[in-house]
Amino acid sequence: MTVADDVTLNVAPDEAASLRRIVWSSVIGTAVEWYDFLIYGTATALVFNKVFFAAGNPALATIAAFGTYAVGFLARPLGAAIFGHYGDRVGRKAMLAITIMVMGIGTFLIGLLPTYQQIGIAAPVLLIGLRFLQGIGLGGEWGGAVLMVVENCPTHRRGLLGSMVQVGNPIGNLAAIGMFALVASLPESDFMTYGWRIPFLISILLVGVGLYIRLNMEETAAFRQVQAKKEVASLPLLEIFRHHRRPFFTAVGLKISEIAYASIGGVFVMSYATAI
Fold first, then answer.
1. What is the CATH number for 121?
2. If exposure means fewest CB atoms within 10 Å of the residue's CB, which of 29, 173, 214, 265 is most exposed?
3. Mean pLDDT calculated for residue range 150-176
4. Is residue 2 part of a domain?
5. What pTM did the predictor assign?
6. What domain range includes position 139?
7. Has residue 147 been placed in a domain?
8. Is residue 264 part of a domain?
9. 75-126 residue pLDDT tens
């Protein structure tokens, strides 16, 4: 989604409380989505190579499990393009409600998946499909959550308050690790049978909280003004490539360099530490 840069918003003192609600609503919603996305990484390192792939070569099973983990990252740009397009045409609020449902449904269904021993090759195929759904949801989530904040705050505070949304990432990460730490205390047979599913199934409750928060948010004043002026772009993505190519590719490069090592290293360390 693109920011309505031509709109400058001034927040009066009596609007400060409303702005704080918007910021924390975006942080909480983003934390829920990151929790859903990141518990997959933890489960990949600890469980998926054993329950969703054929027994035999453990190294190949681990590689295959991490391959499904990568699918979520490949789907994120597609999710960003889809929800960015409709977010710029329909509105930020509606898209944020949809993204959290897409993510939540995908995560919940992963917790219900039969194993390879139960349904064979269909198990990893379904797992890949649901991971792709997770990636689509998260791809539309982050940009929309940031825009919900920056389009509701004064221009000179956009950088600071917009960056607050990213606090949802470590919150979701810690919640994911903490939840798996709890279920990992079960006997190994119980953990491998049903314990690993609990963090995925619980996510539906978190999604309910996040969805409630988002449905009670108002559309940004900036987007409402763009709609009122009938300046909504018919093809927002085309507008980006036509007028904003350099900042777009700069932002993509910065994001890849920032997230790649953390996402790969963090999950690999868990897999390595539990395998030695």
1. 1.20.1250.20
2. 265
3. 83
4. no
5. 0.81
6. 14-275
7. yes
8. yes
9. 888 888 888 888 888 878 888 888 888 988 999 999 999 999 899 889 999 9
